[in-house]
Amino acid sequence: MNSVQISALFCKGCAYCVKFCPKQILEMGTVRSRKGHFNPVVTDPEKCIACGICATMCPEAAIEVTKGE
Amino acid sequence: MAKVYTRPQSLLPVPSGFCPGCLHSMAIKLVGEVVDELGQLDNTMHIIPVGCSTLNLLYWKGDNLGSAHGRAPAVATGFKRCCPERLVFAYQGDGDLASIGLAEIIAAANRGENFTVIFANNSTYGMTGGQMAPTTLIGQKATTCKMGRDPADSGYPMKMCELLSTLEAPAFVARYALNTPKGVNEARKGIKKAFEYQMAGKGFTFVELLINCPTNWGMSPLQTLEYMETNTIPYFKPGVYKDKEAEVK
């Protein structure tokens, strides 16, 4: 399965990935990270097409995208 | 399982010092991706300027060399002439490059020095608190122009790509906007082309990246992307302004 891993260490909660996800499957979470930012969460991992746009638009390089079989 | 995107190896595994949503970190990330692609990390020299871009010092894995305010092209000239085999790039902000270092950048470009300048243009002085820069847009508010920039009083925003493309020596001059995925991908290609030109010894290459400043523009990160689309991009038009290879064909 395709997966999107968002690192809580690097993410600063700018929400660019949420805005540009073509499948609209990212949304801002409600729990603050240790650094005090809201991190996005993947709401429906089944729908991810592993296009990598979230990672391209992430200024902090916090997102890792993997394409499954 | 194939990785579609992983963090560039050229960046240290620490959080950057930039504000949330700042595209400065995007710009240095793109440079990192290109350096990874070319496999040149050990051969790269990053010339550190003064301003927000100095924060790259804590973020960039390769070699760094500090310079005085605005004098990064002068330092890069000296370094490149001593070590011509190294991949040298200066990463400068708009206050650093277009204001205090204007003489250095034009002189270096006119001599056709063989290095790359990455120019991050966010139309404000970020680190010192949002003063008006030479690239501040007409009507844009800053701490030193509370009512917005008035051309009658402080002139028009300076278009560095247009200015440098009139010179004879530069090999590649281009401008890209980083507010959309398309712009980011084009910028990556542009930076790669600039580095390849440098490695082939073709001469001075200049890549301007339009970025934002959520903190000093007083907007949320998403609002700054909208502002760039409606205000910055119509004035600073993205595109390739000079490409010596294309002219030959």
Describe this structure in words.
The complex is a heterodimer of chains A (69) and B (249). Chain A has 69 residues and is an alpha+beta fold. Chain A has one domain: Alpha-Beta Plaits (2-Layer Sandwich), CATH 3.30.70. Chain A is 14% helix and 30% strand. The N and C termini of chain A lie close together (7 Å). In chain B, strand 6, helix 7 and strand 7 form a beta-alpha-beta unit. Chain B has a 7-stranded mixed β-sheet with strand order 3-2-4-5-7-6-8, sandwiched between helices. Chain B is an alpha/beta fold and 249 residues long. The N and C termini of chain B lie far apart (42 Å).
Write a short abstract of this structure.
Chain A is of the alpha+beta class.
What is the CATH topology descriptor of chain A? Answer: Alpha-Beta Plaits
The coarse overall form of chain B would be globular
CATH class of chain A: Alpha Beta
Distance between the termini of chain A: 7 Å
| Average pLDDT for all residues of chain B | 93
Measured by residues with Cβ under 8 Å of the partner chain's Cβ, the largest interface is: A-B, 29 and 29 residues
Number of domains of chain B: 1
CATH architecture of chain A: 2-Layer Sandwich
Q: Helicity of chain A, in percent?
A: 10-25%
Oligomerization status of the protein chains: heterodimer
Relevant terms:
A: 69 residues; alpha+beta; Alpha-Beta Plaits; two-stranded antiparallel sheet; 2 helices; 4 strands; globular; B: 249 residues; alpha/beta; 10 helices
List the helices and strands and how they pair.
The complex is a heterodimer of chains A (69) and B (249).
Chain A: E1 3-6, H1 16-20, E2 26-32, E3 38-42, H2 53-57, E4 63-67
Antiparallel strand pairs in A: 1-4, 2-3
Chain B: E1 2-5, H1 24-38, E2 44-48, E3 63-66, H2 72-82, E4 87-93, H3 94-100, H4 102-111, E5 116-121, H5 151-154, H6 160-165, E6 172-177, H7 181-199, E7 205-210, H8 214-217, H9 221-235, E8 239-243, H10 244-248
Parallel strand pairs in B: 2-3, 2-4, 4-5, 5-7, 6-7
Antiparallel strand pairs in B: 6-8
Helix pairs in contact in B: 1-7, 3-4
